[in-house]
Specification:
The protein is an alpha+beta fold and 726 residues long. The chain is built from 26 helices and 20 strands. Helices cover 46% and strands 17% of the residues. The strands form four sheets. It has a seven-stranded mixed sheet with strand order 1-5-4-3-2-6-7. Strands 16-15-14-13-19-20 form a six-stranded antiparallel sheet. Strands 8-9-12-10-11 form a five-stranded antiparallel sheet. A hairpin with a 2-residue loop joins β19 and β20. The relative contact order is 0.08.
Length: 726
């Protein structure tokens, strides 16, 4: 069998038989040339030009390929500008991609190898393009075009094809603009930098462990195996894409004069400096300032966490952001990983020592050793007063008849919202989804009938449990046995349109209170078909069980709420399939300007914003109540929107859908963007007046209709609050 070394022998023989003065027959020389070419093909060693010319001579893989091969080779050999060569290369690769599914055998192999060679040459061309961008980053049009060509090559190589196509479409749009939209460009560069970071991590994880094991087995140098994954990343066209995107992000941020830090809750905090991967389930024994690698967005904040420096962006109005402001926890996010690493390296000598974290509303941050001794630990905060619940109501209740005492604040205010929607003036017109409530009485009655006194005993002893996790699991299993009876399910269905898809939401007696928002602590189940009694019942039980997630139970403990007195009501509403979802505060939560409405908007369902489950930044806008002006702070850079899955195949679930911002009116139409922001601002103004104070508002946009699904009082520390410390 032939080996790679035979290529050398074959080349030597061919050189010998074709040398001047050689006397070999023409037929033998021709056969030797054919053999050598086939050997090159067998070992994938033939040059790209030879491959292309061979395919062209064979008329493969499609009639239009021959002319495109000629055009590309002409551009290459005439040293045309890199962007021109890349355009011709992409045209040819697109023909290959279209043809390959129909090819077989040797033809498929030749075309596939040629495509790999073209990808390799694209790497070379993109390296030159990246070099030019780095040399002159202000050639904006060239950078946009080079990045588009890089993205299209990545897509043709089969890497995140749908997302790369969407990004390419937006880059084309940005290039056609008469001016420079820095907010939109920044969002694109951030999206791409995040993509290449994820690609690098995924590729490294793919090789992790296995490469070193193989290296040891074959006696490969240890250093070579350690750097193998890095070498693979750096040899991929994504690496050249990263160079262009990272350079342009730096340039754009400089042009926008942006600080490297984004404050969610400005102020001063004192505590012992620690580095954490996550605060989920973290129990702080002393006051700390946390350098935090990751936050999912729905965690609770332990009582002794006084300050957080997060390694990545987070929606300001996410549940975690709301909890930070409610607790007065100083919170700041890094705009990029490199900035966070630089800070952590500079503060490494202060780890486990008492420090003072200062975060300004303009995005400056300092971490210094505390100039005064740590103050004594604060006493536990006074217990939050939970209104005594009315358990007498055991019937499904329209939300317009719900009360706080029987159905919870969320259900009650949803009913008030329904009437407010009717009263809203034309400039602030909105709709309410309506719905019904399952009162606390149904929860208590079902538990008593199914479990007797077991549940109350377990809830009373939770805080003294030796193993919280085991107790939580036990309580959740108890509630698994607490399905609604058939009559209750039937009654619920009678209140809902037969073919409707609904949201099953929590409305506990210990959430949406003035001193305890409980934002995101309890479950909401989306995409439940009302026609299925089984699925409705399952969703209700899942919401009841969310009383006993660890973060919910620890939050009640922190606020002094008796677990056995925590009752879960249920709010069932038609689900709004949103084009856009938003959260807004009728008073700016960062600057504390009462005349500004701050809003964050995302494509798709609202879970993206509320739980911060997707990495990225939403559209951020500010509406000035006095001047009617709209200020755009940021364009969204989320890669995916959350949309309902098929409710019959995957009830209760949302799925990710790639966002193409070139098709999103909020991104491309400044007039629409301003008009929507003004309308939302007027709605916020109306609700603030209607409810008698600053509001935390959640809603959705479906076509021309704005829905408000929830409003509650904003929970913020006093604007002049002193430093948070032990």
């Amino acid at each position: 069998s032939a080996g790679p070394e035979d290529l050398v022998t074959s080349e030597r023989i061919l050189r010998m038989v074709t040398a001047d003065g050689a006397h070999y027959s023409g037929a033998f020389v021709d056969q030797m040339r054919i053999f050598h070419r086939e050997l090159l093909e067998f070992f994938n060693a033939t040059s790209m030009d030879d491959q292309l010319q061979d395919i062209q001579n064979r008329g493969e893989p499609a009639p239009e390929a021959s002319a495109l091969i000629g055009e590309f080779l002409h551009a290459k050999h005439s040293f045309a500008p890199v962007e021109h060569q890349l355009c011709k290369l992409i045209d040819l690769r697109e023909v290959y991609q279209t043809a390959m599914p129909k090819l077989q055998g040797e033809v498929l192999q030749r075309v596939r190898l040629s495509d790999i060679a073209l990808e390799g040459y694209a790497f070379v061309l993109l390296a030159e393009a990246a070099k030019q961008v780095e040399a002159d980053p202000h050639r904006n049009e060239f950078a946009l075009e080079a990045c588009r060509l890089a993205v299209e090559n990545v897509a043709l190589s089969g890497t995140s094809r749908s997302e790369m196509v969407a990004v390419a479409n937006e880059l084309k749009r940005l290039k056609t603009l008469t001016g420079t939209d820095l907010c939109a460009q920044r969002a694109n560069w951030e999206r791409l930098v995040r993509f290449v970071g994820d690609f690098s991590q995924d590729l490294t994880a793919l090789y992790e462990g296995g490469v070193e094991e193989l290296g040891r087995a074959f006696g490969v140098d240890h250093h070579a195996t350690k750097v193998f994954a890095e070498a693979e990343v750096r040899s991929h066209i994504v690496f050249q894409l990263s160079r262009i995107a990272a350079q342009q992000l730096r340039t754009t941020r400089k042009q926008m004069d942006l600080p490297p830090w984004d404050p969610l809750c400005a102020g001063t905090a004192r505590g012992f400096l620690v580095r954490l991967g996550s605060i989920a389930d973290y129990v702080a024994q002393k006051p700390i300032v946390a350098l935090l690698d990751h936050a999912a967005g729905d965690e609770d904040i332990p009582a002794n966490v006084k300050g957080i420096v997060l390694a990545h962006p987070l929606p300001h109005l996410s549940h975690l952001g709301v909890r930070a402001r409610q607790a007065g926890t100083v919170f700041v996010c890094s705009e990029d990983w490199a900035t966070f690493l630089s800070l952590t390296e500079g503060a490494s000598d202060k780890l486990d020592r008492s420090v003072e974290l200062k975060v300004s509303s303009t995005g400056t941050i300092t971490i210094d050793e505390a100039s005064t001794p740590m103050l004594p630990e604060k006493k536990a905060p006074a217990a939050v007063r939970v209104p005594k619940s009315d358990l007498a109501n055991t019937r499904v209740t329209p939300i317009t008849k719900a009360s706080v005492l029987s159905c919870g604040s969320k259900a009650f205010y949803s009913g008030v919202l329904e009437q407010a929607a009717v009263d809203s003036p034309p400039a602030a017109r909105f709709s309410s989804p309506g719905g019904v409530a399952l009162p606390f009485g149904i929860f208590a009655q079902t538990i008593k009938r199914r479990l007797g006194s077991q549940y109350e005993k377990a809830a009373k002893t939770f805080d003294a449990s030796v193993s919280l996790d085991e107790t939580l699991e036990h309580l959740a299993k108890l509630l698994d046995e607490c399905e609604l009876d058939d009559d209750a399910v039937k009654e619920l269905q009678e209140h809902l349109p037969a073919d409707s898809i609904v949201m099953v939401r929590s409305s506990a007696n210990c959430e949406d209170l003035e001193d305890m928002s409980g934002a995101g602590l309890y479950e909401s189940i989306a995409n439940v078909p009302a026609s299925s009694g089984k699925l409705l019942n399952s969703a209700v039980v899942d919401v009841w069980k969310s009383l006993w997630t660890k973060r919910a139970a620890l939050s009640r403990k922190q606020y002094g709420v008796a677990h056995e007195k925590a009752y879960m009501g249920i709010l069932v509403q038609p689900m709004i399939v949103a084009n856009l979802s938003f959260i807004m505060f009728s008073e700016h939560p960062i600057s504390r300007n009462a005349n500004e409405v701050y809003m964050e908007i995302a494509v798709g369902m609202g879970e993206t914003l509320a739980s911060a489950s997707s990495r990225g930044v939403p559209f951020r806008l500010v509406y000035d109540k006095l001047t009617d002006e709209v200020r755009v702070i940021a364009h969204s850079n989320y890669s995916h929107a959350l949309v309902p899955s098929d409710p019959t195949a995957a009830p209760g679930l949302l799925e990710q859908q790639v966002i193409d911002y070139s098709q999103v009116a909020l991104a491309v139409d400044a007039e629409y963007r301003t008009g929507l922001a003004r309308r939302l601002g007027e709605i916020a103004r109306f609700l603030e007046t209607h409810f008698g104070g600053p509001q935390d508002i959640e809603g959705a946009v479906d076509g021309d209709t704005v829905y408000i699904v929830q409003t509650r009082p904003m929970v913020l520390p006093p604007a002049d609050a002193p430093p948070t410390n032990g």
